[in-house]
Write the C-alpha cells for this entry.
Amino acid sequence: MYYIGIDLGGTNIKAGVVDETGRIVAQAYAKTQAQRPYGDIVRDMAACVTMSMNHINITQGDIEAIGIGIPGLARQNDGSVIFCTNLGWKDIPLRTEMQKYLSKPVFIDNDATVAGYAESIAGVSKGYPCSVFLTLGTGTGGGIVINGRPWTGRHGIASELGHMTIALDGVPCTCGNDGCAERYTSASAIIRMARQECMTYTDSLLMKFAGGDMERINAKTVFDAAKAGDEVACRVFDHYCDHLAVLINNIICTLDPDMIVLGGGVSHAGEFLLDNVRRKIPRYLLYKELPYAELRLASLGNDAGIIGAAMLGRLYHTEGV
Amino acid sequence: MYYIGIDLGGTNIKAGVVDETGRIVAQAYAKTQAQRPYGDIVRDMAACVTMSMNHINITQGDIEAIGIGIPGLARQNDGSVIFCTNLGWKDIPLRTEMQKYLSKPVFIDNDATVAGYAESIAGVSKGYPCSVFLTLGTGTGGGIVINGRPWTGRHGIASELGHMTIALDGVPCTCGNDGCAERYTSASAIIRMARQECMTYTDSLLMKFAGGDMERINAKTVFDAAKAGDEVACRVFDHYCDHLAVLINNIICTLDPDMIVLGGGVSHAGEFLLDNVRRKIPRYLLYKELPYAELRLASLGNDAGIIGAAMLGRLYHTEGV
C-alpha cells in the first residue's frame, strides 16, 4: 500500500506517491498560482495526485491516506486550514474539498512540522524519539517530534521557534514583537546584518561577490565571502552562528531533544555552518559536562515536504484518528 | 497501597506517605544540614520515611515505591544524583544508599519537575495532558509534563526554562550566560529591579515598606507597595509582569501546552500577579485570534514536592521501569 504526500507552497504544488518506508516512488508538480480561488488550487492538487499515481500505474485502491503539508496552521479535527498567510487562506475546508476528488482519509499539518517528521522517519533523525527541525529560510520555522510523533501543541500553535523572543527590545519582527529569534537566525537576518556592515565597509570581498550592489547580497554571498576569508563576511557569519547557537541552546534548555536538525536555504552552507555552530553551542550550555543534542544537517532536502505529509497520513490513518 | 515521596531541599528533608490519588496521609521532617556527608543525610531521609509510616501504623509491606525530588539532576537508569549544587553533591549513588535502609524501588528526579508533575496529578493542572510549571523563587525553575508524564528530556537536562536566553547581551546570569529568563522573572529579579529604582526614587512608599533600608526590599515588599499604588513599585511590577509574559510566550511558541502553572515564592502574590500577567500575554502571542494555554496559580504549595516524588514512584513502578 502507498500514501500520498502533498507539499503545498506559495509557488508550487508538489504531490508524490510514498511507500511504507518513506520513499517517494512517483511525483508530479504544478504551479500554485496563489491568487486563484482555493477551489482551483485544490483541484490542481488532486490532479497532481492523479498524475503521480498514473506514473506508476496505481489507482486509488492502492492508496491508504493523503497527507498535506501547508505553509500555515490546520485544525486536526475537521481537516480545515485555519490560515495560510501567503495563500490568503482563512478557514478553508481543505479536507472536504480534497475529498470531492479523492475519497480517502486526508490529514493536514504545518509544512515545517511535516518536514521535521519526515527527517525523523526517513532522514537524518530517523529512529530518534525526540528531534527538533529548524528551517532557516526567509523566516525561521520549527518542527518538533516527541516520542516519534509530530508535536503541534494542544492548540496547534507549537513549534513556532522563530518567534521565541531571544532579544528583549531587539530587532522588530514582522509579527509585531521585538527580538524574535527569526530576526537573528533566518536568511533575512544574515542579509540584514551583512548590508549593515557593508554600509561601513564598502570595499569588502563580500561587496565584490555581490557585484558592488548591496541589494544583491544574499545568504550565499555572505557564506562564500566568509569561506574566502573576507573579514566583513566572517564577522557577519560569526555573529549569525552565535545567535543560532543561542536559539539552539534555548531548545536544549526547554526540550533537550536527541537531535536538532538544520534545514532550509541557509543549511545549504553545509558543514561550514554546522562546524561553526557546533563550536559555539558549549559556551551557552547550562550543564557543560553533560551530553546534549546532536546537531545535524537535514538530509531529505525538498523531498521532506512530500515524505512528511505522506507519513503524517500513515501515522494518523494507522491510528484511526 | 501507598507511595513514599521525599522532598530533599538545601534546608529541610520532608518525607510523606501518599495514597494512590496523590493525597498525603502522613509526613515527617528533619533539617538537611547540607554540609554533612551524604550518607548522614540519606540516613535521616530514611528515618523521616520510617517516622511518617509509624504515624499511621503502616510497614514497608504497605509501600510500593519511593520517589525523591532533588534540587539538581538525576540519572534515571542507575538512580544516581549527577549533582545538587547547593548540597555539594556530585555523582552520589542515592538509590543504592537509600536501599540500604528501605528495600523498595527508588526513583529520583528534579524538584521542579516533580512539583509540576504533582500539580498535573492532584493539583491545578490535574487531567491536562500537557502542562508547564514555573517555579518563581530565588531562581526560575521549570517542570514539563507531556502526555501526562514528566519530561526531563533525552539527556535529563530539559525544562531549565529559567536559563532560556530572552535578552541577548542582557543581565549577566550566575550560569555564565547573559540575559537568561531567570534574571528577569525570579524573585531576585524583582529585588534587583526594585533596588535599582530606589536608588533614584528614595522617598517611595516601597522604601517606606522596607523600613528605609534598600537591603530589606524583597518580592513581597514590592507587591505590597504596588498593591498600595506606589508609583515606583508599580513600575517594577509592570516590568516584571512584562518579562514573565515574554517567557510564557516563549513556552507557548515552543510547546503550546494546555496550561502554564505559576508556583514558587513569587506566586504568593496570587491573583494580583496572575491578572496582570494574563493581561500582558496577548500582546506577545503570534496567533492573537487563536486559543492558547490557560495561566493558573499552583494549588499544592509546599506539598507538591512530596506528592510529585511519590507519584513519580507510582508512575515508574507501575510501568516496571
User: Anything to note?
Assistant: Residues 127-298 of chain A form a domain with the Nucleotidyltransferase; domain 5 fold (CATH 3.30.420.40). The radius of gyration of chain A is 20 Å.
